[in-house]
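Complex 483.
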Amino acid sequence: MGVDVKAPDYGYKSYMPHQDVQLTTKKQTYTYEFKMGDASDANGRLEFNMGAKGSTADICISNVSVKRTKKADPNEKEKKTVLANGNYVYNGSFQEGDKHLGYWNISNAENADVTVTPFSDGRRFKVTMSGNEKSAVVMSQEELAFATGTPYKFSFTATSDADNTITANIGGYVYTFDIKAGETKDFAVELPSDAQYVNHNISITLGMQKTTWLDNVSLVENALIKNGSFNDGTTGYTIYVDSSAKASYVVDSLKDDNALAVTIKDTGDADWKVQIKQENIKLEKGKTYKLKFKAKSSLNRKIRVVMQGQENRDWHVYSNDNIVDLTKDYQTFEDTFTMNEDTDTAAFFSACLGKIGDNQITTQHEVHIDDISLEEVKDDPKDDIKDNPKDDPKDDIKDNPKDDPKEDINTDIKNEQPKVPAPVIKTSESDKAKTTQAVKESKTAKAAKTGDNSPILAYVFGAMAGALILAVSFLKKRKKTNN
Ligand SMILES: [Ca+2]
Ligand SMILES: [Ca+2]
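Predicted structure with calcium ion bound:
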C-alpha cells in the first residue's frame, strides 16, 4: 500500500515523500515524519493507495492521525523553490511562522508599530508610523528561486490611511507605487523574461505616513501555462499513468534542456491512460489562444495535445483536436483556437501519450516534451490601444501640484501597471550607472545600481512548517480524466 500527502489544488504535488508500506497479516503501527515546505494548504490530501499492487486481499486501517510535531529550526537555511501555489515569495499572505512573519526579514530601525492583523482581518502585515521616524520599515526575502528566462508578475494588495508611496525592489528592479489615503488597491508589475537580475532578493519599503497594510505578496510566472520550460521540474503538472498502462517519467537535464521525458512500455488502451496535465487554466469566452509545444519520440508515433474542460464541462475540448506525428527529432507544434464556450476558469492542458487511434504501443519508447506555452492572440491593434490608454500628462500635473522631480518619477508610473524597465545590463560599473540613468530619465522605473537596498537583518523570525490542515479522505479514488 502507498501512503502520500498531496496537493489536489496544485497538480498533486507531494508534500511528503511517497511511502511504500509493507503490510502483513499482523496489525502494525506505521509512523512517518515529513516537513511541510510549501505555503499553507487548506486542501491537502492524505492518500492510501491500494490499487495496482497485484493483490485483492482486504486491508484494515484504523487510528489515522496527522499531527504537527515541531516548529522548524528558525535558523535553518533552505534552498528556496517555487511553491506549489506558484508563488516564489514565501508566506506572502502572512499566515505562517512565528507571529505569522515566517520567512520575512523586517528592518524596523526606529521601532514603528509592526504587526500582523488577526485571522478575522485576513492576516495582513500592518505598519503604523508615529511620524517621527526618519526611515521606513523594509521587509525582505533573500535568495528566491526566480531567474532570467521566465516572465514574472509581481503583485500585492495594500491599504493606507494616508497618502503613501510603497517601493518594491525585485532583484534590482525598483518600482514605486502611490496609494492615496483610504484606498485599498491591488498593484502589479510585469517583469520580462530577459530581465537581468542583480540578485535574487525582494524587498518592500512601506510608506512613512500613518498606517499601511500589506497582503498577498506574490511573484508568479506570468504565463497561462506555468513551468512550460520544466526548469522547475514537474511543478505545476500532474503526470497520470493508469494502472493498465506502463510508463515512468523524469525531467531530463542531462541529455536534454530540462524536458519532460516519459518512458512508455505500454500505452494502455486509451489516449488518457498516459497523460500530462496542468490544471486551473483560465480560458475566456471569445478570446483566441495559441498553444505551442515541442516534442519528439524515439519511436514514430502520434500524441494528442489539447486544452479542455473538466468533468463538469463534459470534458469539452476547447482547442482543436490536436493529434500530431512525432519523430525522433524535435518539432514545434502550434494550435490557434478561439474559446467559443463560456469562460472556464478551470480548463486544463492535456498531452495524451496513451493509445491514439487504433495504435496501442507495447514497444518501449521515450517521448520528450518541452517549451509548452499558451498565449492569448491579440490581432486587433485597435483593441490594444483601448486596453492601454496613454497617460495624459495633464493628469500627472493635476495629481502633483508640487513640482518635485523625484515625485515625477513616482507618479509617472501608472500605479496598476508600471512599464517594465529596461534590463540592467551587467557590464562595467560606469555603463551600469549609465543604464540606470537612462532608465530614470525615461521615467518608467529605475533599476537600482546594485539592487541591494535589503535591510540589515533586524531579527529573523522563525519559519515553521506550514500549518498542517489536512482534509483526510479515506479511500477516495483520485479522479481520472476522461474525455
Ligand atoms: Ca493575509
Ligand atoms: Ca526545457
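The chain has three domains: 1-70+468-483, 98-223+418-460, 238-377.
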